[in-house]
Fold this protein.
Amino acid sequence: MTRASRAAQEELFDAASAPAPDREQLEPGAFVLRAFAAEEAPALLDAIGLVAQAAPLRHMTTARGWRMSVAMTNCGDAGWLSDRSGYRYDAIDPQTGRRWPAMPEVFAHLAARAASAARFAGFAPDACLINRYEPGTRLTLHQDRDEQDFDAPIVSVSLGVPATLLWGGAARTDRPRRVRLEHGDVVVWGGPARLNFHGIDTLREGHHALTGSARFNLTFRRALLRR
Ligand code: MD6
Ligand code: FE
């Protein structure tokens, strides 16, 4: 099937609101688990609130000095950071001078279950990046390559207002396909798709009973090599 006809077919599928399959394969190694986190969502959002009390959501700066539109914080042993010196993981939150808050049990458990559902057994994330998107914010096309361990998958949980994932290929120039991510959807990717380019299109105005105008995303990763 060509890209165009596949896109057309996906649109038809949306329009007819046919029951979505539980595990949608984007390509080998990359899966969308529809509504996988819907039940835990209220608990996840409560835990986000607690993490953000200890390590506030903030707008980081890129190496080139741009302020990121998405607000971020972390929990777990390693937190993802961006500043004038580039991207890296650090155990310490530079804003508080303390370690990032511990990964809540409900987070770690959900991430491991989602990985298993996508046939990645034994996923034990040490890093959770928390992203908050407000209308008009976006995440440009990028690869996740700051981790020491590319063998582990990445588990990404969408909460609140829906967004469009731009799912690219191995090269930045591969035309991304558009994947709508709704409240509770979980994306798992690893193996051959681990370094694919991806991003989030500009968030539209919307409302969700649990998050208001915002979308939250939890990205679970294995940042440090297992000892
Ligand atoms: C987001 N996610 O969904 C941004 N990265 O808000 C990511 O950048 C991402 O969803 C690696 C793996 C899964 C992801
Ligand atoms: Fe990413």
